Amino acid sequence: DLPLFTPQTLAGKRVIVTAGGTRERLDPVRFLTNDSSGKMGYAVAAAAQQAGAKVTLITAPTGLSAPSGVDIVNIQSTTELATAVLDRFPNADVLVMAAAVADFQPVTVADQKIKKTADNDEMVLTLKKTPDILKQVAAIKQPHQVTVGFAAETQAVLANGQKKLADKQLDLLAANDVSRQDIGFNSDDNQVTFIMPDGVTDQTPKTSKRVIAQALVSRVATILAAK
Ligand code: CTP
Ligand code: CA
Questions:
Q1: Eight-state DSSP code of residue 63
Q2: Which segments are annotated as binding site for CTP?
């Protein structure tokens, strides 16, 4: 564990963490999702709990076991995630959006299983943008509240990350290069670049998601203390 990481680091703070890949349903037996394993978000929830926070983990289906001492809220779609976050955010000190949120959802959800027929050799799905949860949160964020995002990038990690930090009015962004196979989505390891609003960046070594989560929580504690 990282030094100086104690149950007092976030004592009494209310922390919301989101995790996993949201699912956008097409019909009763099919959905669109992404490669997120949920491991990074679960590690952040565990680290915040160990740092003394009261933690709510809002999670898409992952198959991971809940970290002990953490309240779990299960969601599937981006719309459900948005409602769960926006309901709780006014009473939270910190929000960490580690969920891999679907950017598009089907315009219509079929109530019955979609059938293939003799005349549909091709099928076109019409999707619409999902709500940007962190942008909605930015609109109601109070000065004492800390918001943290994750950015999955396959190119121009720093430039894209800096733009996301500004657009979503974040206090901290953890950017990672998901084009690398050795880290990120399904791996137990990760490497992120922390980006701060003042433009300072700090790349972690490649290490376990547990240690990266602890580094993130330590930074959150420092940001909270300075507010
Ligand atoms: N996020 C969100 N609501 C969405 C999409 C993303 O709150 N509808 C959050 C994610 O949880 C993450 C951050 O925004 O913390 C950045 O997500 P990312 O997918 O990297 O960025 P997008 O803004 O969706 O942009 P793009 O996927 O086009 O790079
Ligand atoms: Ca996205």
A1: -
A2: 103, 113, 131-134, 150, 164, 168
Helices within the chain (DSSP H only): 39-50, 78-88, 133-140, 157-167, 209-226
Q: What is the pTM of this model?
A: 0.96
Cα distances from 154 to residues 19, 128, 200, in angstroms, run 20, 23, 21
Please state the ipTM of this predicted complex: 0.99
Tokens standing for residue 182: 């050795």
**Where does ligand 1 bind, in terms of residues with CB under 6 Å?**
78, 97, 99, 101, 103, 130-134, 149-152, 164
DSSP state of 90: G
d(CA 147, CA 165): 10
Q: In this predicted model, what pLDDT tens digit does every residue of 83-132 receive, in sequence order?
A: 999 999 999 999 999 999 999 999 999 999 999 888 888 989 999 999 99
Query: How many whole angstroms separate alpha carbon 107 and alpha carbon 156?
Result: 31
Give the pLDDT confidence of 42-69 residue by residue, as tens digits: 999 999 999 999 999 999 999 999 999 9
Active site residue ranges: 34
